[in-house]
Write a structure and sequence with these properties.
Homotetramer. Catalyzes the conversion of inosine 5'-phosphate (IMP) to xanthosine 5'-phosphate (XMP), the first committed and rate-limiting step in the de novo synthesis of guanine nucleotides, and therefore plays an important role in the regulation of cell growth. Its cofactor is K(+). It comes from Methanobacterium bryantii. Pathway: Purine metabolism; XMP biosynthesis via de novo pathway; XMP from IMP: step 1/1. By secondary structure, the protein is α/β, with parallel strands linked by helices. The protein has two domains: 92 residues, CBS-domain, CATH 3.10.580.10; 263 residues, Aldolase class I (TIM Barrel, Alpha-Beta Barrel), CATH 3.20.20.70. Helices cover 34% and strands 19% of the residues. It has 18 helices and 20 strands. The strands form six sheets. An eight-stranded parallel barrel has the order 4-5-11-12-13-14-15-16, surrounded by six helices. Strand 8, helix 7 and strand 9 form a beta-alpha-beta unit. Helix 2 packs parallel to helix 3, helix 11 runs parallel beside helix 13 and helix 14 packs across helix 16. The longest helix has 19 residues. The structure holds xanthosine-5'-monophosphate. Xanthosine-5'-monophosphate (XMP) binds next to strand 16.
Length: 494
């Protein structure tokens, strides 16, 4: 009976419908551990992943997030080669060895060596003959003679005994070798041929990020999005070194998508994160396909109109908890994607079973997000738009229309698309690490209240109280005009 559909409909809840109940706790927020599993084979050090959106994640965001212990998913609204390039930029940024090493020939003049060092902004050059390292020359060698009109050649003053290292040398080993031998740079060689160079500065720089998310080779971790049927893109991203490939689609329980997962999975080495879904049944279907991670959220996002345009969705806490109940049986991590506005929402998402959260609007507007700062009425903003918005579906490489199972052929593109997202601006927020500091600080505080020493304890121990709309009104600051905005409680509205 039709009436049964309504009578038997379950309740759906989201962030503002519950609060976490404080628990007896001997856990201090500063001692809390927030590292977490985000896919079958990968852990990261803070449970934060940036959305695969063209106003949120390109290499700049992914690099900073990896440095801070999180993960960026490079969006796919660009050509395959552009996206591959973005993945490589993240990997190379953490590469200890500079691959495109600048070298000089032994017969070059000192003046040439000096000029190359100036142009390339390096302080030393390996001297190479037929790719074989035959010496090394530094600014220090050149300085005493360069202004005296010396006619000497590189080979006359270079250091001939060059200490080199093989590619397998670890950063710590390289540092030890450099310190012991009092050298600043070490050419990396294979069979005597130059492959790159390592400098002490690079190694020390790297030590600045002890919490960084790194792959087995010590490079920054990065994920990248692909379409549900875009095998070519998935394989190219895999070849480029993406650790996780995310199938990015608005309805991953579409049975054609489910069927195609095996084809993608069989052709890549990376872990496969699949979403979005919002039900236990969808989780069962995807886990049966041996996906490595699940992403949950149909319509909770700040720029989403799916729930309004299609009338479809499940409030986010209910969706995450329903999926997490299934996922815990097989140990597949769950990512809560969309709708998070405050650090408390991250805590609530984890408390209902998420292993990590995916953030769009909270990270949009930061310095590292793609796009320029615009000034309106004397205040700074950056663009933020849904990947199902008209702008995103028709702009860039237009690689996102299949996210919403839409295909456009010929002219009049706009008129033939049914958007499920909007375009707008969010306040400029400055560097993303300041935003992350507040978000993680809030999460740790929550875990202290709940007596949870780590993410899995938070998932198991935290308990909720269901609240009313007046409970939520009481929860926000009230009966005051805020004069000094807190960094973790923005009140800026347009
Ligand atoms: P927040 O709330 O963090 O949400 O801004 C970001 C998430 O929203 C999803 N997304 C969309 N959903 N229409 C939608 O229905 C869209 O145009 C759209 N664009 C992004 C996506 O899961 C993202 O991580």
């Amino acid at each position: 009976m039709y009436s049964k559909k309504l009578k038997e409909a379950p309740n759906g809840y989201t962030f503002d419908d519950f609060l976490l109940i404080p628990n007896a706790s001997s856990v201090e927020p500063k001692d809390v551990k927030v590292e977490t599993q985000i896919s079958r084979n990968y852990r990261i050090n803070i449970p934060i992943i940036s959305s695969a959106m063209d106003t949120v994640t390109e290499s700049k965001m992914a690099i900073t997030l990896a440095q801070e212990g999180g993960l960026g998913i490079i969006h796919r609204n660009m050509t395959i080669s552009e996206q591959v390039n973005e993945v490589k930029k993240v990997k190379q940024s953490s590469d200890l060895t500079i691959r495109d090493v600048i070298t000089i020939s032994p017969d070059a003049s000192i003046a040439e060596a000096n000029e190359i060092m100036d142009i390339e902004e390096v302080s030393g050059l390996p001297v190479v003959e037929d790719e074989i390292v035959v010496g090394i020359i530094s600014r220090r060698d050149i300085k005493p003679i360069i202004n005296k009109g010396s006619k000497k050649k590189v080979k006359d003053i270079m250091t001939e005994e060059v200490l080199t290292i093989p590619e397998s040398t670890t950063p710590d080993e390289a540092l030890d070798i450099a310190y012991e031998n009092k050298v600043e740079r070490l050419p990396v060689v294979r069979n005597g041929k130059i492959m790159g160079i390592v400098t002490i500065r690079d190694i020390l720089e790297r030590k600045k990020f002890p919490n960084a998310s790194r792959d087995k080779k010590g490079k920054f971790m990065v994920a990248a999005a692909t379409g549900p049927f875009d095998l070519e893109r998935a394989m190219a991203l895999d070849d480029a070194g993406a650790d996780i490939i995310a199938i990015d689609v608005s309805h991953a329980h579409n049975l054609h998508v489910v069927d195609y997962i095996k084809t993608i999975k069989d052709n890549i080495d990376a872990d496969l994160l699949v979403g979005n879904i919002a039900t236990a049944k969808a989780a069962e279907a995807l886990i049966a396909k041996e996906v490595d991670g699940l992403k949950v959220g149909i319509g909770p996002g700040s720029i989403c109109t799916t729930r309004i345009v299609a009338g479809v969705g499940v409030p986010q806490l209910t969706a995450v908890s329903d999926v997490a109940d299934i996922a815990r049986e097989s140990g597949i991590p769950v990512i809560a994607d969309g709708g998070l506005r405050f650090s408390g929402d991250i805590a609530k998402a984890i408390a209902v079973g998420a292993d990590a959260v995916m953030l769009g609007s909270l990270l949009a507007g930061t310095h590292e997000a793609p796009g320029d700062v615009v000034i309106m009425n004397g205040r700074k903003f950056k663009q933020y738009r849904g990947m199902g918005s008209l702008g995103a579906m028709t702009g860039g490489a237009g690689a996102g229309t299949d996210r919403y199972f839409q295909e456009v052929k010929g002219p009049m593109k706009h008129a033939k698309l049914v958007p499920e997202g909007i375009e707008g601006v969010v306040p400029y927020k400055g560097p993303v690490n300041e935003v992350l500091f507040q978000l993680i600080g809030g999460l740790k505080s929550s875990m202290g209240y709940c007596g949870a020493e780590d993410i899995s304890a938070m998932k198991e121990k935290a308990r909720f109280v269901k609240i009313t709309a007046s409970g939520m009104t009481e929860s926000h600051p009230h009966d005051i005009t805020i004069t000094n905005e807190s960094p973790n409680y923005p009140t800026t509205r347009l």
